[in-house]
């Protein structure tokens, strides 16, 4: 090693140095999931590979839940919304997700995302409309950073912080919480697979990451596969499967 020479080191110390160095070299480097206060200098510039946002984009999923036919449409809206976080305004993109069961509208939600300077995408909450026979019957699961404003459902739960939705460079074994508001929403996400190839009706997607979702509020698990430049391409749970059938978002 240039500029470093060991002249008189006891054999035991040399051996100890060798063991420590070997252990360090054999331990894979890991990208830590951010836990500090994020900085948002240009929050609408979402460049995250696995949670991209292209205003005007559309994705369509189709699948089944038991004997029920499901269709989900994701609309990457062109309007934005600003939230107050850590005494600063943060502009967020809006992803509208619309779900149908056997051809009937059952849910529509507005989801708010911003990217921090380190490339992590943060989740600022969602407004949920649950439908029955064409009428809104509930807003269960609604939460927003700062709580409801204006025409938001008054029962929307207030959150004091945004959550990590997708790290900048997710790695195998990474854990984070996309939803974390006790008694309202809870979701723990773990990267359980990387470099996975997934084939769905929309095509073949390489280098996807596989994320396992669990919750303290309900039993069971859900697994999702995220593709570079596209986001979620498939999700599965017990008795349920949903896969991407068309997308204007494309892998790079």
Protein described:
The protein contains one helix and 15 strands. It is mainly beta. The chain has one domain: YmcC-like fold (Beta Barrel), CATH 2.40.360. Strand 1 and strand 2 form a beta hairpin. The longest helix has 16 residues. It is globular and about 45 Å long.
Per DSSP, what share of the residues sits in E-state strands of 2 or more residues?
over 45%
Give the proportion of residues in helices. under 10%
Q: What's the structural domain tally?
A: 1
Query: Major sheet, described briefly?
Result: 15 strands, mixed
List low-confidence stretches: 2-29
CATH topology descriptor: YmcC-like fold
Mean model confidence by pLDDT: 90
Per CATH, the class reads Mainly Beta
For the secondary structure, the number of strands is: 15
Order of helices and strands: HEEEEEEEEEEEEEEE
Shape: globular
Annotated CATH architecture: Beta Barrel
What is the CA-CA span between the terminal residues? 41 Å
Q: What is the count of DSSP helices, taking H or I runs of 4+ residues? A: 1
Classification by helices and strands: mainly beta
């Amino acid at each position: 090693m240039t500029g470093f020479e060991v002249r008189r080191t006891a054999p035991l110390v040399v051996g100890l140095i060798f063991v420590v160095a070997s252990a360090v070299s054999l331990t894979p480097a890991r990208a830590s999931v951010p836990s500090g206060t994020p900085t948002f200098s240009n929050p609408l510039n979402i460049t995250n590979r696995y949670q991209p946002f292209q205003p005007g984009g559309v994705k369509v999923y189709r699948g089944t839940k038991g004997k029920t036919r499901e269709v989900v449409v994701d609309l990457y809206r062109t309007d934005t919304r600003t939230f107050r976080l850590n005494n600063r305004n943060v502009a967020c993109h809006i992803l509208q997700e619309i779900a149908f069961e056997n051809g009937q509208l059952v849910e529509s939600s507005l989801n708010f995302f911003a990217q921090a300077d380190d490339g992590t995408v943060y989740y600022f909450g969602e407004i949920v409309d649950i439908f029955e026979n064409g009428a809104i019957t509930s807003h269960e699961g609604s939460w927003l950073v700062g709580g409801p404003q204006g025409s938001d459902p008054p029962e929307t739960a207030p959150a004091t912080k945004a959550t990590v939705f997708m790290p900048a460079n997710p790695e195998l074994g990474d854990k984070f919480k996309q939803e974390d508001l006790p008694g309202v929403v809870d979701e723990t996400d773990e990267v359980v697979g990387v470099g996975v190839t997934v084939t769905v009706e929309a095509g073949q997607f390489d280098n996807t990451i596989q994320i396992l979702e669990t919750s303290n509020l309900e039993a069971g698990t859900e697994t999702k596969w995220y593709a570079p430049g596209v986001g979620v391409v498939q999700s599965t749970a017990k008795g349920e499967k949903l896969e991407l059938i068309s997308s204007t978002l494309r892998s790079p």
